[in-house]
## 1
Amino acid sequence: MIDLQPVKGTRDFFPDEMRLRNWLFDVWRRVSVQAGFEEYDTCVLEHEELYIRKAGDEISKQLYSFEDKGGRRLSLRPEMTPSLARLVLQYKKSLSFPIKWFSMPQCFRYERMTKGRRREHFQWNADIIGQPEMVAEAEILMLLISACESMGLTAKDIRVFINDRRILNSILSQISVPQEMHSAVLVIMDKRDKISTEALSKLLQDLGMSTIQVEQLNEYLSKSDLNELKKDLNDTHGIEELQNLMDLMVTAGYSNYLQFDISIVRGLSYYTGAVFEVNSPEKQHRAICGGGRYDSLLSACGGETVPAVGFGFGDVVVLDVLKELQRFPELPRTLDYTIIPFAAEQVGIALKIAAELRSQGSTVDCNFSMKKIKKTMQQANESGAKNTILLFPDELAEDKVVIRDMQLHEQKPIKITDLISSAE
Ligand code: HAM
């Protein structure tokens, strides 16, 4: 007997779940298009080297990678951003910057399975490439907030926790951590919520930081006020930009959503500026969405530096959040008509009526089970049909059918030609 369960950490989508997934994808696609983003896609298979990074990113250790029959090292994509960088580098000369692109890829990571983390997930990505000013961050944040609002989430339910990697870099410089260690230190700092303070200190010391530096770092990380930090740091890069972004968001009408949070680091080493995560105000969940500015990813892939900012917004956590808040949309199956023949010789006419109604845009199913009327009506009810079309021999002899309104429980004979023209 073969194993009937899906591969560990992956999901099957039965029709009910598929309706929910399509609803989510529709929200993502609609808000993206409304904000002027264009959709793109790439193959789920990529060259493994695209995901191998020196700083020790967790993602590099979570790859589903293998060698193909031609000896190539390949990987299922764990995220979309490197593929986007590859596309942009490939077609840079013909693209007119800034570009605003979105995608909804399925991603694979060999994760330790915890609540909100699976080995396969869908991740809406939206990125603006070629816009160095903070207005790109503002547009990106407005886009993801508008998606949340479209799902029925408000500023009471979610918060965008935001920081800037340049602030973290100036803290590290101020406590004399050498520049070349910054990326690796930040990857470790991102584990702050997941491991104990002692374990974190040990990892930082193993990397080469002294006990005093770790203490100093913790002291800086306890500060929650941007102005206070501004007084303490020699290099205030990032702080002013973040304040400008917050002002921009206030003017745009999104002030309630944003909160400065020095503990937001992000585990991907390519971020260079603003970094953010969306969560409930009390941070009860894994991040619903995460992103930031990554001006040097394209240069790391072999091109020139190109400013870029974007986010990834997974399907798993947001659906958990909506479920907990009892904000799942009602998504019953619906059909305009179910056509019910009662004898084999009526099948042809049933198919013909179905084809005519479908060509006029109606959703139509036929029930060819030839079961008794009670059973077929019950099945039509379960399928969400608004009307049933009953093919009784007496009416058919007069080129008529019986149409039954399933909500009003009323039925009447109707000429087939009238039925078809009334559906136009
Ligand atoms: P990330 O933080 O690794 O960023 O993932 C972004 C989002 O994808 C997370 O906040 C979460 O919603 C979802 N996600 C990630 N891993 C899993 C998982 N194992 N199970 C379920 N959901 C998951 C990135 O991937 C960046 N490439 C995002 C980005 C785009 N930055 C700039 N542009």
Note: The chain has a mean pLDDT of 94.
## 2
Amino acid sequence: MTTTETDCLFCKISAGQIPAQITYRDDQVLAFKDVGPKAPLHELVIPLRHIATLADTTAEDAALLGRLMVVAAERARESGQASGGFRVVMNAGADAGQSVHHIHLHLLGGRALAWPPG
Ligand code: AMP
């Protein structure tokens, strides 16, 4: 099931109301290129269902969260840009720098990634 929020940027992307470079879609998950890429490979993997932040999830969301990870791995493989490795990260809340309040995995790759992130 999908739920959408009227003012949510990523709900609008999943509804086709705002253009994006879509790389993957199924009945629960969407992936698209980040508009401000921080690495040669930078895609966002989101659930179609609106969930504002990881802190809002419960055990009932476990399968959906798992699907986000599996799709990220699939995109890393299919991109051909992550043979040297890749990173998935989800920012949650203000201190982590979450700017869009619809959960999303960042898939980053195509270059060496420093650790720890800032
Ligand atoms: P975060 O700061 O973790 O919430 O990440 C939000 C991400 O969304 C940033 O990396 C932005 O570059 C990206 N972003 C914002 N607007 C768009 C858009 N219209 N299409 C694709 N990515 C976007």
Note: The CA atoms of residues 89 and 97 lie 12 Å apart.
## 3
Amino acid sequence: MGMKKEGLKLFENGKRIDGRAYDELRPIKMEVGVLKRADGSCYLEWGGNKVLAAVYGPRECLPRHTQDPLKARINYRYNMAPFSTDERVRPGPSRRSIEISKLSKEALEHVIFTEYFPKTSIDIFVEILQADAGTRCAGLTAASLALADAGIPMKSLITACAAGKIDGKVVLDLGKLEDNFGEADLPIAYMPRTKELVYLQMDGDLTKDEFKEALRLALKGCDEIYRIQRDALKKAYEGEVNGR
Ligand code: CDP
């Protein structure tokens, strides 16, 4: 965000650098039930992002002193594979991945009926295999489907998407160059059933009106992604995927 590159035009003649319109998402596909050993899983591709989400639980929460007698404990680990970016990512948690994991976990605590499963943990692993901007949204969207695949009761799915600003124009779903050289990025997640926001971050600067427009676009993106999420679940449970 905010890097300078002389002569680089991100928005010209109504089109973006990859040919998209201002309100167009990158191509997205998802498949659930891709991992045998996990209770629930999802593989998601979104533009150049490739993400695997795996869910285990509810299972006994260990060590025991971390148990909550009234509800399940949610653990969320966002991790970038060392080969996921141009430069090798140093293995282990970083400040950035700890922050993304914490906020994603808090978003999911809003939708999971944790009080149904006291003393247990629900462990969510999000592995970014290939990163191309927007990985926190891709991870949360995949995690929510993996939770549904694990049969964990939730008030709603969670759908995440970002909007941002490039060359002064508010646009949906920033790609990698747009993220690096753009002016702002606003990732959000919401519960499509109840229309409650459960995640919102802002990198860069937006005026009040630009913020409203970015939020409108991101919510519109979420509606499209929600449709793809539901189709992926229907496909899996109509027995069309992996003979299930
Ligand atoms: O991925 P997301 O947009 O949620 O997070 P970001 O911190 O805004 O990062 C934007 C992009 O920068 C990532 O998707 C990666 O492609 C890249 N990145 C990287 O190459 N190395 C890192 N350590 C972190 C991010």
Note: The domain at 19-241 is CATH 3.30.230.70 (Ribosomal Protein S5; domain 2).
